[in-house]
Amino acid sequence: MTLVDEVNELLKQWETEHNTLPVPEHYPKKILQSIADSIDKAKAEVSSLNLDPYDDFKNVSENVESEVIKTILDHEFLEVLTTVYLTGSRYAQDEEVHILAARIMASAMNGIDYNAYFKDVEEDMVDTLYRWALANREPLTSYAVEMLSYGESLCGKYHQSNMELIKLLLSKLKTIHQKARDEYNAAHSPPQANIAPWDEDTQDGGNTADEDLLNPNDTLIRTELVGQSNFEFFQCQAVLHFLLSLGEYQEFLGLIMKNNIPK
Fold this sequence. Notes:
By secondary structure, the chain is mostly helical. The protein is built from 14 helices and no strands. Helices cover 65% and strands 0% of the residues.
């Protein structure tokens, strides 16, 4: 059975339970976990191919991960995921359901017309994502940040929240990066020069520390994160996506590029 077939079977099972079982008997945690795991397996399969998006564009755009995501996006499950599992009152106090739903949604955002999505969803949905992001409760925070990174149209309306979130995320990025650097240096001899990510001057006299951290292809980050958990890598990715999505807005650019923000 392929991963696409596996997800189709899970969605059929979900549809049967959602449409026929009384509410108390339809607790979605187990099936949400299975769908999220299937998406992660599809991502791992694509990652193992090490495809170059320029040389293998067709393979990258038509891979098993995108097929799995498309299967989910074409199903009524997506609407219930947004309006019931993420923001509905039925699971308002159930963080486990929120985490699983957000994990799936964060993966699916790449296949969504996000301008239309954020235009159509209730304002409560966006407020909820900012609340989770600013609460700094992992893994919910990183899933919320990844989803918000697609909502460029939210910059003006959520200006103050974005300013607070930028500071929080830069601090988080510094912490993850330093942890990875320390573990990498502990495992390699001789260790790298102990240059903090936010040092004002780099060895060549430049001031490129933030540029390096904000570059998702930075060799140092990718090298040091080898061996880190998949979630730690995802945290960095989500932070970078969000910061880069705001980078073109001059009011945020100075804050993003300023040295020594996290103190």
